[in-house]
Structure formats: structure tokens, C-alpha cells
Automatic annotation (TrEMBL):
It comes from the Bacteria. Keywords: Methyltransferase, Transferase. This is SAM-dependent methyltransferase. The keyword Nucleotidyltransferase does not apply. GO terms for molecular function: methyltransferase activity. The keyword Methyltransferase applies. GO terms for biological process: methylation.
């Protein structure tokens, strides 16, 4: 397996006093790579909405299914922004199971993800895996680094899983997606999952948003119409915009406990022609 130089030899400082979405997600999934601040906010959220850990697993299961589907369409390059702490199987493991020569670039802004990037860099001998620490809004730096591993003249699957609801319109959520879309070659795919208020009572969605904001985090759970805007100019893949659990469930195994749970997330995959 070819590995690129990340250029990240100097360890970044981990702010353990403030919750971080990647570490909270790890806590929801039962991981150990989180801190008291992450667990505290996580417990507050689960205390109000006990299904959140199941919803997190449903979201991750969508990522696995979408990766399998896109790899099945012949795509051999993946750019995953908002990677999170490694939880097997990781995206490259799913992709390389179908296509051993698949090349994957991961990106996250949390130093603890970098600390575990060695697990993300273990792939097949035929493929390539790289990792860059960068903020999702710094698309220029992400694209510059990704070009060391990925050929942007060929199709790429751009994966933004459970990321964009942490970025407000004012912080450029739509602009960063447009910038990334513009860099993709025809035949590329955009894969997004995103929390929405549409599946739950308005009061409950407002409470979750307020809890995140109280923890110092942005939370913008977008409606279907606002979610669809991310895919402007692309051709939707069937079944279009649906709840996470409804996107090609035949491509994966059901998540334990999901039978009576709504994921609370819209998902979609679309193609650039």
C-alpha cells in the first residue's frame, strides 16, 4: 500500500475541555477515544433522546452501503471529509473489499483523529490511503493535499457524512460544497448524510439544537429543501433524498434496535455529469 507524507509531524494540541463532534460520535458508538466534556454533552443528549446511539449507527451503516454502491459503479477514488475517529470497518476497508486498488483520502480537524490516523492508513497493497488534518471549510488546503493521492481528472466519490449540520450558512456550508463539487471530474459522486428536524417534533429538534449550542457547537438541522440545495447541478441516484435507513437497505445488515427508530437524518447520493 502506498502512503503519502501527511506533513503533520508536529502534534496539534487537543482541546479536551470542549466537546468535539468526532469524539462525541465516538462516544455514541461506544468508543473510548473521548473526554469528559464529550461524554457530558453526549449524556445530556441521550438523556433527552435515548435513541441517538442507534441513530449514529444507522448513519454509519448508510456510509458503508453508499461506499459499496459507489465502488460497484466503478469509482476507485474516495475523499472523505469529516472522517471521525476510526471505527472498523472504515471507509477504505469497505471500498477496498470491493476494489483493492481503491485510493482514499481522509480529512478531519480533530487532533485526536490524527493521533489514530495509523489505523486509517492500513489498506491493501494495491490501493492508497492518506490523511490530512484540516478544517472542512479550508477546501483549498484539502484539495491541494488530496491531489497528492487522488487524480482529479478521474471520478471521485466525495463523502460528507454527518458533517454539514455542524457548519452554518454563515460559515459557508453551501459554498464549501460548491467549491468541492467544482473540483470533481464528470462521473464523480457526492454522498451526504445530514440531521434534519423533519422526522421529529419541532420542540425536540429545538432542544437538541440548544444542547449542542450550550456545548459551544454549531447545530443546523436542515429541512429537506435546504438539504437538497447541496446537490444542485447533480443527478440524484435512486431513491433520491430519503431517511438514512431507507437508502438501499439491501446493501447492508440492519442495525440492532433500528426497527422502531427514525434515523433523524436525510441522505442522498448524486452524480456529476
Amino acid at each position: 500500500m502506498e502512503q503519502q507524507d501527511t506533513g503533520l509531524d508536529t502534534p496539534a494540541r487537543i482541546d479536551t475541555g470542549k466537546p468535539h463532534p468526532a469524539r462525541m460520535y465516538d462516544w455514541f458508538l461506544g468508543g473510548k477515544d473521548n473526554y469528559p466534556a464529550d461524554e457530558e454533552l453526549g449524556r445530556q443528549l441521550v438523556g433527552f433522546a435515548p435513541d441517538i446511539p442507534v441513530m449514529a449507527r444507522m448513519n454509519r451503516a448508510f456510509m458503508h452501503r453508499a461506499t459499496r454502491w459507489v465502488a460497484g459503479q466503478g469509482v476507485r477514488q474516495f475523499l472523505d471529509i469529516g472522517t471521525g475517529i476510526p471505527t472498523e470497518p472504515n471507509l477504505h476497508q469497505v471500498a477496498q473489499e470491493i476494489a483493492p486498488d481503491a485510493r482514499v483520502v481522509y480529512c478531519d480537524n480533530d487532533p485526536i483523529v490524527l493521533a489514530h490516523s495509523e489505523a486509517l492508513l492500513r489498506g491493501t497493497s494495491e490501493g492508497g490511503v492518506d490523511y490530512v488534518q484540516a478544517d472542512a471549510r479550508d477546501t483549498a488546503a484539502i484539495l491541494e493535499h488530496a491531489r497528492r493521492t487522488l487524480d482529479f481528472d478521474r471520478p471521485i466519490a466525495l463523502s460528507l457524512i454527518a458533517l454539514l449540520h455542524f457548519i452554518s450558512n454563515e460559515d459557508g456550508a453551501y459554498e464549501l460544497v460548491e467549491h468541492l463539487k467544482e473540483a470533481l471530474a464528470p462521473g464523480s459522486y457526492l454522498i451526504i448524510s445530514h440531521l434534519t428536524p423533519d422526522f421529529h417534533p419541532e420542540e425536540a429538534s429545538r432542544k437538541v439544537t440548544d444542547l449542542y449550542k450550550a456545548g459551544g457547537l454549531t447545530m443546523d438541522m436542515r429541512s429537506r429543501e435546504r438539504f437538497a440545495r447541496f446537490f444542485e447541478g447533480l443527478e440524484p441516484v435512486a431513491p433520491g433524498i430519503v431517511a438514512a435507513e431507507d437508502w438501499h437497505p439491501e446493501l447492508g445488515e440492519p442495525v440492532p434496535g433500528q426497527e422502531d427508530v427514525r434515523s433523524g437524518a436525510y441522505v442522498a447520493v448524486a452524480r456529476k455529469n
